Amino acid sequence: MTPDPTSLDRLHDLVVPPPTPRWPLAPGWNWVLGFVLLAALVLAGRAFIHWQRNRYRREALAELARQEGALADPSRRTLALAAIAELLKRAAVTAWPREQVAGLTGPAWTAFLQRSTGSEKVNVSFGELLETSAYDLRKGTALDDAGLREMIAGVRAWLIHHRGEVPEGRAGSC
């Protein structure tokens, strides 16, 4: 060996420290994970409440699909129209207080349907048509298939897009 400090004989391998363990985490990360878990639970709870409050919409849309099948048969058309008119009123009574909705008929009912959509895109001309055709046998059977499809599309759009406030204890079926 040479006494020269720059000699290559004095070199040796570098000592690498052991890798940092991934667990347990630092205390700050425990707080972050706890906050993320709490936020996920709150969001899941809110989503569940929203899903429960809209149960009447899902049930009304399923009933509308059943009545749509009955509309195809001309002998059951009038009964199906009456059932759709009733379904629409039940959905409205579920979403708003009974005192505010139950007594509405005629132009007031149609105006309520338009106000409750919150959108000008939803055509609510079906309100008057349903009200009259459900009780006038001649008008109910005189509707053509295109008119029925347009009416069903309007009812479906109203059921999907209306903006009602469901009271806490009334999120049940319509």
Count of DSSP H/I helices: 8
Uncertain residue ranges:
none
> Quick check: average pLDDT?
83
Number of strands: 0
Q: Tell me the structural class.
A: mainly alpha
The rounded distance between the terminal residues' Cα atoms is 96 Å
If you compute it from the alpha carbons, what radius of gyration comes out, rounded to the nearest whole angstrom?
Answer: 32 Å
Shape estimate: rod-shaped
Structural commentary:
It is a single chain. This protein has helices at residues 27-53, 55-71, 77-95, 98-101, 106-117, 126-133, 137-142, 145-161. It is mostly helical and 174 residues long. The protein has a domain at 55-170. Helix 5 packs antiparallel against helix 6 (126-133) and helix 6 packs across helix 8 (145-161). The protein is rod-shaped and about 115 Å long. The N and C termini lie far apart (96 Å).
In brief, what are we looking at here?
The protein is mostly helical and 174 residues long. The protein has 8 helices and no strands. The mean pLDDT is 83.
Question: Secondary-structure blueprint of this entry?
Answer:
Layout lengths: L26 H27 L1 H17 L5 H19 L2 H4 L4 H12 L8 H8 L3 H6 L2 H17 L13
